[in-house]
Write a structure and sequence with these properties.
- This protein has about 240 residues and is mainly α.
- It has nine helices and five strands, in the order E-E-H-H-H-H-H-H-E-H-E-E-H-H.
Length: about 240
């Protein structure tokens, strides 16, 4: 299985002080985190071998299937093929894979949801997931290896956050256990650059770097049209 992965040893977001101004609570962000964690606990935690592969092939994004080069067996093909471009984001390859993605969503998702509203943010998240999945498919159209993980969708959230609030200071763990308060533009900008670099140096690795890049590009483009009227980009007021 190919999965998107967050370099937890390099960048670990802890907290931002960016308050909400349009919504009271980021209920969609919380809902996505809850559903993703429930799926992992109920269907993936503790599963190994054939059982783990079963869920990955049933709900993961498989390039050869999405490009009509292969067909899933009837006992696995429960959903329309195109649905896997979203359902893959609910599966994860391990506890740390899940924690990394959900931690980024917890820190950054609320402010992106605040800029869009609940319904728009949910659609935005699904579209970023689909874009990440599709980018992976385009990079390996004949592959039978399923993509799992929310990294494509989370990458879109990160790109949107950076375009909204580049000057905001956040608490990160960077290269170790010492917390640092740094501007989003430096840390998230470095993380984004790392994704593009990894596409070049490790295109066939165990991490789906193209899914990250696809999500990033989608998030940067979609924030332009999904933000609520009057929501500025590149907020210059640091916190």
């Amino acid at each position: 299985m190919v999965r998107g992965a967050w370099e937890l040893k390099v960048f670990v977001p802890l907290h931002d002080t960016n308050s909400l101004t349009r919504i009271k609570r980021p209920i969609v962000t919380w809902f996505i985190i809850l559903v993703t964690c429930v799926v992992y606990v109920l269907f993936q935690a503790g599963s190994t071998g054939a059982e783990a592969s079963f869920f990955a092939y049933r709900f993961g994004a498989i390039p050869s299937v999405l490009t009509d080069r292969a067909v899933l067996p009837p006992d696995i093909a429960y959903l329309p093929t195109e649905a896997s471009l979203v359902t893959y984001s609910l599966l994860h390859g391990g506890a740390m894979h899940l924690v990394g993605n959900m931690l980024f969503l917890w820190v950054f998702g609320d402010n992106v949801e605040d800029a869009m509203g609940h319904v728009r943010f949910f659609i935005f998240y699904c579209l970023c997931a689909a874009a990440g999945g599709y980018a992976y498919v385009l990079s390996a159209p004949a592959s039978d290896v399923p993509l799992i993980g929310a990294s494509g969708a989370i990458s879109g959230v990160v790109a949107a956050y950076l375009m909204l609030h580049p000057k905001v200071k956040l608490w990160f763990l960077v290269f170790g256990p010492i917390p640092l308060r740094l501007r989003a533009q430096w840390v998230l900008g470095a993380w984004i650059a790392l994704q593009f670099y990894n596409v070049l140096v490790d295109p066939a690795g165990q991490t789906a770097w193209m899914a990250h890049v696809g999500g990033l590009v989608a998030g940067a483009a979609l924030i332009l049209v999904f933000r609520l009227p009057g929501t500025p980009l590149f907020d210059r007021s640091p916190s």
